[in-house]
Amino acid sequence: GMLRSAASTADRENHEDITNDILRDAAEDARAQIKQKSLDSLTPHQRVVYDIVRDHGPLGPSEIHDRYTEAVDDPRTKRTVRTYLSKMAQYNLLEAEGTSRDRKYSLVDSAAASPVS
Q1: Which H helix or E strand runs over 96?
Q2: What is the pLDDT of residues 51-108, one digit of tens each?
Q3: Which of 36, 45, 58, 84 is least surrounded, with the fewest CB atoms within 10 Å of its CB?
Q4: Which helix H or strand E contains 39, and what residues bound it?
Q5: Of 21, 76, 78, 17, which is closest to residue 45 (Cα–Cα)?
Q6: Helices and strands in the chain, H and E counts
Q7: Is residue 23 assigned to a domain?
């Protein structure tokens, strides 16, 4: 999909070749689309957890759960919130740093995402 987008851009802009800049832009667009699809697939409770980390991170799981329980009616358990955090890290929406005892969650820095060379 990324290569198809780059080829379409090159064709539209009358380039004979797909340049590194065109490919880099296509990669950024693809990452943004994937991130948006991942965000759109979050449940309302997962979205609250994500928003807490976005607005207040980096935070540890206990503090995230405390803020989460204040923000929603019928909050999920700490274990469930930790599962949400783990899944969001797998989907590259959040990053986890530290060991299990001192783990902190923060948003993935999109500028640090793997660039195309």
Answers
A1: strand 94-97
A2: 999 999 899 999 999 999 999 999 999 999 999 999 999 999 999 999 888 999 999 8
A3: 36
A4: helix 20-40
A5: 76
A6: 5, 2
A7: yes
